[in-house]
Design goal:
The protein has 4 domains: 169 residues, Trna Endonuclease, Chain: A, domain 1; 61 residues, no CATH class; 110 residues, no CATH class; 133 residues, no CATH class. With 532 residues, the chain is of the alpha+beta class. The N and C termini lie far apart (122 Å). The longest helix is centred in the first third of the chain and has 28 residues. Strands 16-15-14-13-12-17-18 form a 7-stranded antiparallel beta sheet.
Length: 532
């Protein structure tokens, strides 16, 4: 009995190792069955096993009706007995598998051909798949630190839509083609040849008209599947992706950011004025191109449409709205341009290279503001133009925010200084009197009383500061000034204050110009409220 008992003893651990060995063999046999089933499922493609386990299980070459597409990929297979057990409760459209090692994913990231992870149900003979680039992108979003767990495992999510039926295999082919696109498209152009069939119905006619208009004039139009007869792509693209099912096609002209310089010339009975604008192409078709100054710092909001009809006669239309100009010269040119259009209602276009088109008539009432306001602006800008030439060493007037009515007195002051003419104005004065200030003996009609101030101070206009230097101030009502002065001296006051004193100021450091532009003839009314 003892011998019998002893004969039944085994070395410690032998029984456990035998069970593990049998379990491993069962799992191995399941994996082998899965690989065979996958080969059967993808029998239209060339699927081969590796003789050794090098990290990938199968290499697949994609074929289309017996013709090689040039695409290939690796299958890494994970075999399970019940794929439904891995469906996420919170997301029934997703299957999650938690046994993917981090080191394997890091190995597959840069693989060429790409690696596709397949979760295969050995009992149902079906599976779901996901490409490694998509797996990595999802992990980076869901768990940014996953790469540091090199000895750990991660959970990979598979869309249930990524099946292994005919639709799923077609989607897999397109996925592999998309991953390989940078390689297969290198040095090639993708061509698209759609064929449309518009129904002879009111709806079909509307779509057909929109389609023709987009082709002729530019712009965009979307054609739905019901009007698409067929779509052919370049041979190399179709070889990789297969036939495409298109739900809609949008045709549009791509706006250009490149600027083109156009000239616009208005010719009136009295003068001709030309302005130049940098415009970008908004849209272009077979018969018409449209350009705009939108989204730019141009002084005009302008839109130009040039048409090229069958008879090759070039026509165009033009509309615009004046905006604040950057400087005086541009503002004056724009104002005169608008005045010329008011007088003629016609404009010519000068194309790059100097070719002139036109004239074209503008719609009645197209131009604002009216001529009276424009004449006032022109007179004011003439003054500023003259002043700018004399004070250029101090800076350039900034008109980007317009000219406001409160700035008109400063413009008058500077214009008087630059032309050497007296500036009549009304000022408030306050003087400090010396202790020995004398009484002024003044006889009515004796002439004006004046004072000298040096420096008079600075003029601040349109972001430029101009020192005015030495000035002589004449009191136009000298008797009132002398009376106030003498009264203060007799009463022992040490200051004198005058409100609304009418004076004439002569700026002594601004000699009249001996050459250059002559002072312009000015309109009586320069501006009436608001700003320009």
């Amino acid at each position: 009995m003892e011998n019998l008992i002893m004969s039944q003893r085994r070395t410690p651990g032998t029984h456990t190792e035998s069970l593990a060995s049998r379990r491993l063999s069962a799992q191995k046999r399941q994996e082998q069955r899965s690989l065979g089933q996958i080969q059967d499922c993808f029998s239209d493609w060339n699927v081969n096993r590796f003789s050794e386990d090098l990290g990938e299980d199968l290499i697949v070459q994609i074929y289309d009706d017996g013709r090689s597409t040039g695409l290939s990929f690796y299958f890494q297979v994970k075999s399970v007995q019940d794929i439904e057990a891995y469906v996420l409760r919170r997301s029934p459209a997703t299957i999650s598998y938690r046994e993917i090692e981090v080191k394997d994913l890091l190995h597959w990231i840069d693989s060429t051909p790409p690696v596709i992870v397949m979760l295969w149900d050995v009992n149902r003979h079906t599976g779901v798949w996901q490409d490694v680039p998509s797996i990595v992108k999802a992990l980076d979003k869901r768990s940014p630190g996953w790469r540091r767990r090199k000895r750990g495992k991660v959970s990979v999510e598979f869309p249930r839509a990524h099946t292994t039926d005919e639709a799923g295999r077609s989607a897999l082919r397109k996925t592999v083609a998309h991953i390989a696109l940078p390689q297969i498209a290198a040095g090639r152009k993708l061509k698209l040849k759609p064929t449309f069939l518009f129904k002879n119905t009111p709806e079909g006619k509307v779509v057909a008209d929109a389609f023709r208009r987009a082709l002729d004039e530019g712009g965009a139009v979307t054609i739905d599947a019901e009007y698409i007869k067929s779509v052919r792509f370049s041979d190399w693209w179709e070889r990789a992706h297969g036939s495409a099912t298109v739900s809609s096609i949008t045709i549009s002209s791509v706006p250009s950011q490149e600027r083109v310089r156009f000239g616009f010339r208005a010719v009136s009975p009295t003068h001709t004025e030309t302005v130049y604008l940098e415009m970008r192409r908004l849209k272009a078709g077979r018969k018409q191109s449209t350009f705009t100054t939108a989204d730019s710092m141009q002084p005009l909001d302008a839109r130009l449409t040039i048409s090229f009809p069958k008879e090759r006669r070039v026509t165009f239309s033009f509309s615009f709205e004046i905006k604040p100009a950057p400087n005086v010269a541009v503002a004056l040119s724009l104002t005169r341009f608008a005045l010329a259009i008011h007088a003629t209602s016609e404009v010519f276009v000068i194309l790059p290279g100097g070719v002139q088109l036109g004239p074209v008539g503008l719609p009645a009432g197209n131009l604002e503001p009216d001529q009276i306001t424009l004449r006032s602006w022109e007179a004011l800008l003439q003054r500023l133009s003259f002043v700018q030439a004399r004070i250029s060493r101090f800076g350039t007037f900034d008109l980007s925010k317009g000219i406001h009515e409160r700035e008109l007195p400063e413009i008058g002051k500077l214009f008087s200084a630059c032309t050497g003419t007296p500036w009549d104005t009304v000022l408030d004065f306050e003087f400090d009197l010396a202790d020995d200030a004398p009484i002024i003996e003044y006889q009515p009609g004796a002439g004006p009383v004046s004072i000298e101030i040096d420096p008079f101070g600075d003029a601040h206009l349109l972001n430029v500061t101009i020192p005015l230097g030495h000035a002589t101030i004449e009191f136009l009502s000298s008797e009132s000034f002398v009376e106030s002065y003498n009264k203060s001296v007799r009463n022992g006051r040490r200051s004198i204050h005058l409100d609304d004193a009418a004076v004439r100021i002569c700026f002594r450091d601004w000699n009249p110009p001996r050459q250059g532009p002559e002072p312009p003839l000015l309109a009586e009314k320069l501006i009436s409220g608001g700003s320009i």
